[in-house]
Design a protein that fits this description.
The protein is of the alpha+beta class. About 35% of the residues lie in helices and about 25% in strands. It has a three-stranded antiparallel beta sheet with strand order 1-3-2, with helices on one face. Strand 2 and strand 3 form a beta hairpin.
């Protein structure tokens, strides 16, 4: 859905979602240079490992990770 790419404070959002839900399914597009990402309206440039660390810090356990081209699908509980 390309939600996280448009969020300024991803750690705060992940913590709020954690407080409200038992499962979180998301995708993250980690491809492209910063200039192209800004042109697309993206506010951040996380790597796959960055996203996994942010999820962990927000209280999520990543159960499934699938790469689909530039997008990574993550299922967390």
């Amino acid at each position: 859905m390309e939600l996280l790419e448009h969020i300024h404070d991803v750690p705060a959002l992940l913590s709020r979602i954690r407080a409200a839900a038992g499962t979180f399914i998301c995708t993250y597009c980690g491809d492209g240079d910063a200039q192209a990402r800004r042109a697309a309206g993206y506010f951040n440039d996380f790597s796959r490992s960055d996203i996994e660390r942010l999820l962990d810090a927000g209280g999520w356990s990543v159960e499934t990770v699938e790469d689909h081209g530039a997008h990574t699908l993550l299922v967390c509980r």
